[in-house]
Amino acid sequence: MRDYALTRPARRGLAAIAVLAVLALAGFAAMTAIAPPAERATSAPATEFSAARAFTQVRTIATTTHPAGSPANDRVRDHLVETLRGLGLSPEVQDTVTVQGGQLSSSAGGTGLARVRNVVTLIPGTASTGRIFLVAHYDSAQVGPGGNDDAAGTATILETARALTSGDGLRNDVVLVLTDAEEACLCGAKAFVDQHPLAQEGGVVLNFEARGSSGPAIMFETSEGNSRLVEAYGQVPSPVGTSFAVEIYRLLPNDTDFTPFLDAGRFLGLNSAYIDGAAVYHAPTDTPEAMDRDSLQHHGDNALALTRELGGRDLTALESGGDATYFPAAGLLVRYPGALVWPLAVLALVAVAALAWLVRRQGRSTARRMIAAAGLTLIPILSAPALAQGLWALLVLIRPEYGGMPIDPYRPLWYRLAVIALAAATVLAWYALLRRRIGPAALAVAGFGWLAVLGVVLAAVTPGGAYVATLPALAGALAGLVAIHVPDGVAVAVIAAGAAVAMVILLPTVWMLFPALGMPMAGVGAFLTVLLGLALLPVADLIHPAAGGARGMEALRARRLGAVPTLAAVLAVLACTVTGLAVDRFDAKHPSLTHLMYALDADNNTARWLSEEAEPQEWTAQYVSGSPEPVTASLPAFGDEKLRSGPAPAFADLPAPNLTLVADTRSGDTRTLRVRLTPQRAARFVTLHVSHETKVFSATVGGQPVETTGEAGGGWNFGIVFHAPPQEGVEVELTVHGTGPVRFRAMDASDNVTEVPGFKPRPEGVGVLGSHSSEMVAVAKTYSL
Ligand SMILES: [Zn+2]
């Protein structure tokens, strides 16, 4: 009987072991390349970055929660100014009011504004060709101390500045921009970009963030036309950036200080963050102790090296050049021009077609078999992601608290391995069932074919991500073409080399994708694992008994042996899942996440508890019940958000924000009102909405013009959310149609739900969700002026 495989070595067992060893080595090298470097001690040379030194800054910055406008944030700012002065620099505080940056904002039901105080420091260059801006935000979310987000970025810049000032001066200007009110509305960065003199000529922005507590510092976002910048980034000691991440990031609901810079159109730049360990994101558990300091070292190594690299270049020559495709591979940053994306995608298709033609001509398969194989390959491609989503649904069923985790469980490692094993089991089971009927060569060609087709689709839709499919398809097909022309011993080596390319490209991609998307989207990780599996089919064939040729008892034995890899993968799924459930338990340090807030309506002195939990947990269910409903009618700032509610005691000591008429002029059919909104207690933000009966022509807030086209719903239209309001209040000027009274809804918010009578402290193991309305106490009142 004919041999239907691409290669059939005489000593199959030995070949399998050798090939698996090569793949393991390739995988190990690929994974080592994306691991953060080890933390350097305080004794490291003064011109180098030491995470241990930076961490002492993290401790000071993240002692307590410090949202924009809080006294704790004032203390952080004072510390930053003092530290920078200690380096012989001259920091200044930019104190201003601005409207929000970016499209996404925490203020769903109105235009976000804030009073911000940025700490801005210029390190003048010796013969500057432009400016490099090192950006991180020093404010924290309102319920967490921000040990990682973004004390990590802030400390990275402080330690980088220290290292820079202990060495020779750079050619170019470096501007340190420590922003305020990022968590509120990206307002600090927006204020710097719009209003600060140092920002007016543009330059190169390097933003440093953390959305989690560990993992490599990934360079995940760039300005357009990035090829020269990416080339400079490739010079850092451990570059972990991929053009695929840029595409993934666009799918995520995150936004950073980088956005206002990009929106301005006169900045180039790179955005980096470490993102694993995301269970602590914005939560009280985002403490300095939660930080993996190797991640801080990675941030710092790259920040310092990149600043030095760009600091010596002619910054006027950085622009243009188009977008590059780039990815980390064994310690290097592989990159090629975006112009090669399409030629490579087409080349991969041609190579697969050539392989199919040769395989048919040599009688290793037939056209019918290969067409059947192409159709059947859809089975693992579609079923593995579905099974992975099913596995996560099962885990949420077993542990309902997982439903409340915004991105990932605390210790997702074993669950990720379970998903990878599940995808492997799917591919192996499918392969074991079909390889005798369809033939190994046909299945291998079909696998490469789908990779090549996907490469073409990605080239059209997300060009930066096309390489994840194109290059494994191309390497696999070329290896196949060579393998069928050389002796079997050599063929095995060639096949192994092709598979190693897929391993180096796809394994780190799978591994970085899990923290990026979290377990609730585990199906995407499974999908990419299947792609890797398809690229490895010629290798997978070697761990099965040779197909074809066997008869009778021998064939039965071969079929039984053929089930062994599948069984091993299934056992791995079970073992990893059970281990994950045992390892990742909720406790005091790793609490389940609950959301509760309190809202008082001062019009009728009634109050209620509110929660945004999708499925209320046991603790939350004491306060709220029923189904989620919009609350816009009484709390317009919540926009179209839906919350569960329950009755709460009216808390008499909560004064509503005051709204007074400062000036009032009428001319013809229009009226111009100047009103002052003043919180009567320590409020993180105040909001003001105008009834939909009133048509607003124009408005300014604190002197800043704002859009008046928005609608909050619930009978309210135009509205503003002002963060960090000054004690003396916020002045709003409106020009409206008509001369009759205008109805306003004013609200303020603090973050002390635990002080409300009737609040029962959370038991151990029950914690606070890092949402923008967690622990909020809101007081609202209607005014007619
Ligand atoms: Zn942040």
Could you describe the 3D structure shown?
This protein is of the alpha+beta class and 785 residues long. The relative contact order is 0.12. The longest helix has 30 residues. 40% of the residues lie in helices and 21% in strands. Helix 15 packs antiparallel against helix 16. It has 21 helices and 24 strands. The chain has a 15-stranded mixed beta sheet that branches. A 5-stranded antiparallel beta sheet has the order 15-16-21-18-19, with no helix packed on it. Zinc ion (ZN) binds next to loops.
**How many beta-strand runs?**
24
Give the names of the bound compounds: zinc ion
The rounded Rg comes to 29 Å
Share in helix = 40-55%
Q: Residue-averaged pLDDT, rounded?
A: 93
Number of helical runs? Answer: 21
Estimate the strand proportion: 15-25%
N-end to C-end Cα span: 93 Å
Structural class: alpha+beta
* Low-pLDDT windows of residues: none
> What can be said about the biggest beta sheet?
15 strands, mixed
Give the overall silhouette.
Answer: globular
